[in-house]
Amino acid sequence: MNLTSFFRKKNLDSISEDISNSESGMKRVLGVRDLTLFGIAAIVGAGIFSTIGRAAFHGGPAVSLLFIFVAIACIFTALCYAQFASMISVSGSAYTYTYVSLGEIFAWVIGWALILEYAVSNMVIAISWSEYFTTLLEGFGIFWPDWLAIGYSTAHKAYNMVSEGAVDLPYHIIKAAKTYESAPEIFGFKVLINAPAGLVVTALTFLVFIGIKESKTVNNLLVYLKIAIILLVIGVGAFFVKPENWSPFAPNGLQGVLGGVAAVFFSFIGFDSISTTAEESKNPQRDMPRAMLYCLGICTILYVTIALVLTGMVDYKELGVDDPLAYVFQVVDMDFVAGVISATAIVAITSAILVFQIGQPRIWMTMSRDGLLWPKFGKIHSKYKTPTFSTIITGIVVCIPSLFLDMQFVVDLTSVGTFFAFILVCSGVLFLDYKGDSKKAKFKVPYINGQYIIFILLLVAVYLFITKTDHYEVLYEKPLLIVFWLVWLGLSIAAFKYKFSLLPVMGILTNLYLMTELGWSNWVMFTVWLSIGLVIYLGYGYHKSKLALQKQQNDI
Predict the structure, then answer these.
(1) What is the pLDDT of residues 241-258, one digit of tens each?
(2) Could you give the residue ranges of the DSSP H alpha helices within 6-62?
(3) Higher confidence at residue 41 or residue 323?
(4) Is residue 556 very low, low, confident or very high in pLDDT (cuts 50, 70, 90)?
(5) 243 backbone dihedrals φ, ψ, rounded to 5°
(6) For residues 501 and 503, what is the distance between their CA atoms, to the nearest angstrom?
């Protein structure tokens, strides 16, 4: 086993061959508008209905500026994705980008990590959809059986908490425990199934299976509806804004505003899903970079405006609730609008599930084409022109756990995988710049010489960290920050030597900082997840890789 073979890379010419060979496989029906709407669908999910309230509760009206700040930070990463998308028109997203720039082992790691962002996170999103769906039914006087709306793991965990005498438990825990007690039994086993979660995943998987054109039509309709209702909320809410609620603008200072950085950043995750549909885009090298930046811009405007309306309608101290958009309209006696918002949440979550169900099969398809996964994952349906086996497996992988499990513990884990992918894509751009391959890109990250700036920013950041925070306590609570500072120092040295571009470096640092916010346990789980993936790679992909087989043929 040769160590250098782990870092074998695909070149752009071989990727061009892959594209030409796959022309008859998939339908190119997506324009820049469709791609933009896919991005909005992925970004504007359930988060907009909860994240904004929590962030405003801690930061006050100034959280509206935080959305702008975080959007700028996201653009660092989005620009790197856009540059790769203008060079590589394969539906592999960060996996393919990393394969070209950093090598096969990193590509496999990213492909494995992206399962967390797409398939695993969709389990959590499906469970959330079920909660909104059953609540909406109750609003119409239809009561879905409790034992058919909760997974066994969730109910059993709640039952144990109540049985152990835990005090001050929230209502949903007590309700889940009662559901466990009253659930029907078969052969002594409690029957508890989250049927709505399974049904929505099954329905959307079927839609994804029958064609990208049909999926595009449904997604566009859902996103238009979602945006229209959000604009309605903004328009109606503007009449109830009281400017005095915006004062003080930052009641808890800069620290209070920045306390919501991680939560707000999560609200923007999803723009990268656009790159998974490259082979179904009419003009991917032109349209994908545009769509990524368009969807980030539109979502930023929506987020900032909603934050201003919310904090203008009520005092920011009242926004520490799970459903802030519905809550503020209940406060002003507009329960009808509150009900519409609840329905909108279902639309928003549905479109998010759809986009991620589209993305995961196409990553597996590309990995299979490269020989890192079994050939069956790369098969395209003769009639529907979609990755057949990959789509079905994605549906099963997402559907079955969402029926039975409490998947909330993987929320942060999915974020670790996403940030890790973002870091490697930004690193890939730096590597391509160093090798001179970026000249082939039709869209390039604007070059700003970071030779001195990155080190100067490090000095400023360290000064502020030491003088403006209780740094010893912060490092004690978040020891992973030491890794962040060391990486920044290393990048400063490398930037001085190689004249690195500033924006990709800022993308690396932004995502790494957010990874440190997630805590040790998530890093440990992520390491375990990657270890499982490496075992699979060493057992199959390393030997079956298309590049490995080509080398064997050349050696004969």
Answers:
(1) 999 999 888 887 777 787
(2) 12-21, 32-43, 51-59
(3) 41
(4) low
(5) -55, -25
(6) 6
Q: Residue 185: in which H helix or E strand, if any?
A: strand 185-186
DSSP reduced 3-state for 385: coil
Question: Rounded distance, CA 497 to CA 179, Å?
Answer: 63
Confidence class of residue 525 from pLDDT cuts 50, 70 and 90? Answer: confident
| Distance, C-alpha 317 to centroid of its chain | 29
Residue-range domains of the chain with CATH: 3-136+199-442 (1.20.1740.10), 152-189 (no CATH)
pLDDT in tens, 106-115: 999 999 999 9
Residue 242 C-beta-side C-alpha neighbours within 13 Å: 10
CA dihedral 66, 70, 75, 77 (to 10 degrees): 170
pTM of the model: 0.90
Burial (CB count within 10 angstroms: exposed 0-12, middle 13-18, buried 19+), residue 386? buried
d(C-alpha 109, C-alpha 428), whole Å: 14
Q: What's the full length of the chain, in residues? A: 556
For position 322, what pLDDT does the model report? 64
Q: 10 Å Cβ neighbour count for 170?
A: 9
Q: How far apart are CA 532 and CA 120, in angstroms?
A: 15
pLDDT of residue 535: 95
Q: What are phi and psi of 323, to 5 degrees?
A: -130, 65
**Structural contact between residues 266 and 511, judged by C-beta atoms closer than 8 angstroms:** no
Helix locations, 116-184, DSSP H: 121-139, 152-163, 171-182
Task: Write out pLDDT tens, residues 213-245.
Answer: 999 999 999 999 989 888 988 898 899 999 999
Return the half-sphere exposure (C-beta side, CA atoms, 13 A cut-off) of residue 503: 18
In the numeric block, which tokens belong to residue 114?
């992206």
Largest CA distance in the chain: 79
Question: What does the pLDDT read at residue 24?
Answer: 47
Q: How many Cβ atoms from other residues are within 10 Å of residue 289's Cβ?
A: 26
SS3 label, residue 124:
helix
**Beta strands of 337-492 (E only): which ranges?**
none
Res. 2: pLDDT tops 80: no
